[in-house]
Prior knowledge:
This protein is 17% helix and 30% strand. It has helices spanning 9-18, 24-32, 49-62, 163-168, 190-196, 217-227, 329-334; strands spanning 45-47, 72-74, 88-94, 99-105, 109-115, 117-124, 127-131, 136-139, 145-149, 155-161, 174-176, 214-215, 238-241, 256-262, 272-273, 277-283, 286-290, 293-297, 302-305, 311-315, 321-327, 340-341. By secondary structure, the chain is an alpha+beta fold. The strands form five sheets. The chain has a six-stranded antiparallel β-sheet. Bound molecules: 1-hydroxynaphthalene-2-carboxylic acid. The site of 1-hydroxynaphthalene-2-carboxylic acid has 12 residues, from strand 2, strand 3, strand 4, strand 9 and strand 10.
Amino acid sequence: MSTAEISGLREFDVELEAANLRGQWIYDEMLESVVGGPRPAGVPFLWRWQDVHAKLRKSCDVMPESLTARRNLSFINPDTRGTTHTMNMGMQMLKPGEIAYAHRHTMAALRFAIQGGPGLVTVVDGEPCQMDSYDLVLTPRWTWHDHENATSENVVWLDVLDIGLVLGLNVPFYEPYGEKRQPQRENLGEHLADRGGLLRPAWEQVKTANFPYRYPWRDVERQLQRMAGLAGSPYDGVVLRYANPVTGGSTMPTLDCWVQLLRPGQRTEAHRHTSSAVYFVVRGEGTTVVDEVELDWGPHDSFVVPNWSTHHFVNRSAQDAVLFSVNDIPTLKALDLYYEEPELSLGVQPFPPVPGNLRSR
Ligand code: 1HN
C-alpha cells in the first residue's frame, strides 16, 4: 500500500500545512524522484567569446565609468540563478586608466586575465598582483580588492565567485572601502615572499588560507609542457590543480582551479560527479559532450558542465587544446558529498616510485 492510497491523507496534508507542519511521507515521495542521483542543476551551455566581447565593448559605452559596481557580465545558466548553482563566471572590462573601486565581500573570487598586461594590477589586501594574459590572481573571501588598468588598451579578465553557495548559506557580507584605492604595501611581492614562501618567521602564526596568490601563466605553461607526455586522467587528460602553496590543498576553501591539456585528437572517457565546473578555453578547438549536448568550443569561449551530468572531452584539432576551469569540488569534499561515477578518479593513482626502488636486482 502506498501513501496515495490512504483515504483522507491529502486532506490531512492540507490541515498540517495550515499548522506549519509537514509529514515525512511528503519527503518520501520527493526522494522517490531522485533515485539514481540528483537532477543536474542547470543545463550545459556555451558563451561565445565574440558575442561576450561585443557586449563588454557596448557596456563601456552604456556605462562610461566602471564605478564600484564593476563592468562585469555574469554568465547566467538558463536553468539556475548563476552559471552553476554554486558559482558565477563572468567577464569584466576596464578601459585604459580606469580603477574598479576597492571593496570586499564574503564571496571568494578569482581573476584569470584574458587580455592583460604588466600594467593591469589587482590589489589584494595591499598586495599589488600583476595580471599578464592568462595569469591567475586570487581575491579570497573578505580580502580588499581593487582593479587598476594602467595599460593603454581595454583589458578583459574572467571573474569566478562562489555566489550561489554563499547566498544559499545566507552569509553574504559586503563592504565598500570608501576610497577608490586601498593602501599598498611598499615592496611588490615582499609580504607574500616573506609569509607564504619556503622560509618564514618561526614566531608568527601560519596563514593557511586566503593569501592573495598569483599564479603566473609562464609557470603554468612550463609545468603543462613538462607533464604533457604523461597518461594523466582518463576523464580529463593531463589536468593540474592550482594548489594552495602552504597546504598543497585546494586553490581556495570552496573552489579549485584546474588547467588541462588535451592532446591532438584525444577523446577522454565519460563520467559524472556531484561537483559542477565552469570552463574557459585558453587555446585549441574541440567539443565537450554533456548529457548528449555537444558544446563546440574555440579560443576564449566559456562553457559550463552542471553537476551530475555525464561528460567527455574531444580535441578535434591537430594542436594541443588547453582549458582553464573552476570547480566546487572542495565544497563537496568538505561536506563528504563528493561522488563520482563510474569510479572515484581524484587522487587515486599511486605516487611515482623513487628511483632507487626502480632498480632491477
Ligand atoms: C565583484 O566584486 C567583482 O570585484 C566582479 O571585480 C564580479 C560579481 C558579483 C558580485 C561581486 C570584482 C562580481 C563581484
